[in-house]
Amino acid sequence: MKLFDVYPLYNVTPISAKGMVVTDDKGQEYLDFYGGHAVISIGHGHPHYVEKIKSQLDKIGFYSNAVQNPLQVKLATKLGKLSGCEDYNLFLCNSGAEANENALKMASFKTGKSRVIAFKNGFHGRTSAAVAATDNEKINAPLNKQQKVTILPFNDITAFTAEIEKGDVCAVILEAIQGVGGLEEPTSEFFQKIATLAKENGALLIADEVQCGFGRSGKFFGFQHHWDAERSQSIQPDIISIAKGMGNGFPVGGVLIHESIEASYGMLGTTFGGNHLACAATTAVLEVLENENLIENAAKIGAYFNEKAKEIPQIKSIKGKGLMLGIEFDFEVGELRKKMIYDQHIFTGGAMNKKLLRFLPALNCTKEHIDIFFNALKEEL
């Protein structure tokens, strides 16, 4: 049997990894400034993370959600405190797409409506409703296009007002910092306005924090950079979806559902979600984020990255926050990415914007790592 050919692959075969370094089958080391799509949040093979998973595997790796699992309660408590979202309830699943699928489903259950407002260049996953809300025609099958989704540009409050006031919208979903879309962001004014209008028109606001959450932006969640002036607090979404960095490579996702939204038996369900190993992995990530001050480090190293990037005249703009960053050139970066991998032995990422190089390292990245990156980039430029 052959593999279903859906990924163009670089000619690199990693066989081990530690911290920021990935080693291939020929013994070549690579600095990892992409983290497998922002998944590696605390570094490859972090000793605390490895110990927690190994220890849990020696006890029990999996049983169904039909029985008690205290590890889920421990995880929810820790996540609520560290994120500042203690007035939410947690549903655990397996991926970002699944998190967004359940978030959209919850919004439809709660409101009794079915239309979704999403935004240009947004990416929310590859499952039914999540992919329908994703602004990429190539990955939307006719089956997905049956969903009622309206895609609007960021920061166009006139267009948003016209759509939300039609009264048939169940959910407004957006990324505080777009990932695949190229690090675009809504303004705080726009974010606050859509939150207010969604509430006034009986729709739920979903913050897709799959990539920008878990400390990557320099705050626990990306939406926390946006202030609600009327209430003197950050924007408060009704639902928050999480994945990627929360498991540091272990497949885990989740949905934070505001406590004002009532649960009922059978509304959501999952076989593997919240299993013992997933809980051990995610709790370990939260403990490392807290104990090593990695969210603060993301903000500090992100600021240093910006300083260094401004020294390079070929860089036309710098996008993003914390360690979720993009540098834009006036040429397409496909060949530059190849040179960074094969000549400089550095992993970086691309985006829908073909002129943008994405930068998503582990949150314990250092200034020395940044210096190595920019020295290599200057050489290739």
How is this structure best described in words?
The protein has helices at residues 35-38, 47-59, 70-83, 96-111, 128-132, 157-164, 188-200, 276-291, 294-309, 334-342, 367-380; strands spanning 14-18, 21-24, 29-32, 88-93, 115-119, 149-152, 169-174, 204-208, 227-228, 233-234, 239-242, 253-258, 317-321, 324-328, 346-347, 356-359. Helix 5 links the parallel strand 5 (115-119) and strand 6. It is globular and about 55 Å long. The chain contains 11 helices and 16 strands. The mean pLDDT is 96. Helix content is 34%, strand content 18%.
Descriptive terms for the model:
alpha/beta, Aspartate Aminotransferase, domain 1, Aspartate Aminotransferase, domain 2, seven-stranded mixed beta sheet, four-stranded mixed beta sheet, 16 strands, 34% helix
Describe the strand arrangement of the main beta sheet, using strand numbers: 4-12-11-8-7-5-6
Fraction of residues in β-strands? 15-25%
**What Rg do the Cα atoms give?**
20 Å
**How many independent structural domains?**
2
Terminal residue distance: 42 Å
CATH homologous superfamily heading of the largest domain:
Type I PLP-dependent aspartate aminotransferase-like (Major domain)
Query: What's the story with the biggest beta sheet?
Result: 7 strands, mixed
Shape: globular
- Unreliable spans are none
